[in-house]
Amino acid sequence: MARYTGPKRRLSRREKVALFAKDTEFIERKGAVPPGQHGNARLRRKVSEYGIQLREKQKARRIFGVLEKQFANYYKAASRSRGNTGSRLLELLEMRLDNVVYRLSFSPSRAGARQLVSHNHILVNGKKMNIPSFQVKPGSTVAIWGKMLDNTQVRKSLESQSTLPSWLERKATVGKVLRAPSRDEMEQGIAEQLIVEYYSR
């Protein structure tokens, strides 16, 4: 299960937006200065159309914690399916098990949700599932089990005031996927059309 293990704030600075909750205050305070000693000089460069498309693709990839090859495979699957390719791509990313665990507020971050899944703390339809990229189907139940039921971080996340998306419902530590999300219920900070244009070159 390959994943990015390097510095995360660097990614937020590169994409000029807080990709992770802990970076929000830093980006607001310091501004969107690219990483590295020549970061300020990069702000003056004119970005090409290709560069804009590339940055949008990288931002989406990093928000969901997906590496390049896997993201390209998601795009291929989306382009083969009916309907809007960009919306379908985001739907595939939203329906990943680690993202569903995050959306159900079992964890305060997608990275934490991924860890819950990969460490065998999540049940899907009553069966243990440790694959973060597993595609959850509408009607499926997702639950925390074992010793993680009493975990302080999990409890704190469950007690937070975050609003649950309308395509999900949760009772205590058991959640259910009611349906696939519509575009306005998915990640709002992504311009998926730019990603489609990137791969359509």
Compose a concise summary of this entry.
With 201 residues, the chain is of the alpha+beta class.
Count of domain modules? 2
Mean pLDDT: 86
Structural class: alpha+beta
In CATH, the homologous superfamily of the largest domain goes by the name Ribosomal protein S4/S9, N-terminal domain
Uncertain ranges: none
Count, helices? 10
In the CATH hierarchy, the architecture of the largest domain is Orthogonal Bundle
Radius of gyration: 18 Å
CATH top level assignment of the largest domain: Mainly Alpha
The SSE string, one letter per element, is HHHHHHHHEEEHEEH
Helix content: 40-55%
The share of residues in extended strands comes to 5-15%
Descriptive report:
It contains ten helices and five strands. With 201 residues, it is of the alpha+beta class. The protein folds into two domains: 8-92 and 192-199, Orthogonal Bundle (Ribosomal Protein S4 Delta 41, Chain A, domain 1); 97-182, Structural Genomics Hypothetical 15.5 Kd Protein In mrcA-pckA Intergenic Region, Chain A (Roll). It has a five-stranded antiparallel beta sheet, with helices on one face. Helix 4 (49-63) packs across helix 10 (192-199), helix 5 crosses helix 6 (85-94) and helix 7 (97-103) packs across helix 8. The chain is globular and about 50 Å long.
What are the key terms here?
2 domains, 8% strand, Ribosomal Protein S4 Delta 41, Chain A, domain 1, 44% helix, Structural Genomics Hypothetical 15.5 Kd Protein In mrcA-pckA Intergenic Region, Chain A, five-stranded antiparallel β-sheet, 201 residues, alpha+beta
